[in-house]
Amino acid sequence: MKLIVAVVQNRDADTTVDALITGGYHVTRLASTGGFLREGNTTLLMGLEDAQVDGALQVLQRYCHRRRHYTPMPLVGAESGFDLHGHIEVEVGGATVFVLHIEHFEQV
Ligand code: 2BA
Asked: Is 24 touching ligand 1 by the criterion CB < 6 Å?
């Protein structure tokens, strides 16, 4: 058994969870915050049989999109990569995915 931990953008969370549920996957969604942008994102927990992992990853790939964000940075020590307004561009997503081996699972 595997546990997928996937950090997705809030804008993709509803459609991704809907697709996962429709596909027969169990999923828990947690409200989370990115450490770098300090913006809300969504962390999905999925306990899956090994054979389900590839299908779940395909759903994440399909519904979690890559987007550019601009985040304010201090002007002091500006380097290349900063624009004139002291913002830096970062590309976020699709999804940051961790696949963990689960030694034991039970519901009591
Ligand atoms: P954030 O930490 O808010 O990061 C948002 C985006 O900012 C990242 O997108 C990346 O493009 C950039 N970024 C993050 N840390 C950076 C740094 N130290 N220097 C320069 N740029 C940086 P993603 O890589 O797509 O990550 C999206 C979200 O996924 C992250 O939000 C974080 O919540 C989570 N995440 C990503 N990698 C992780 C990891 N290794 N461990 C735990 N969570 C992770």
From this structure: no
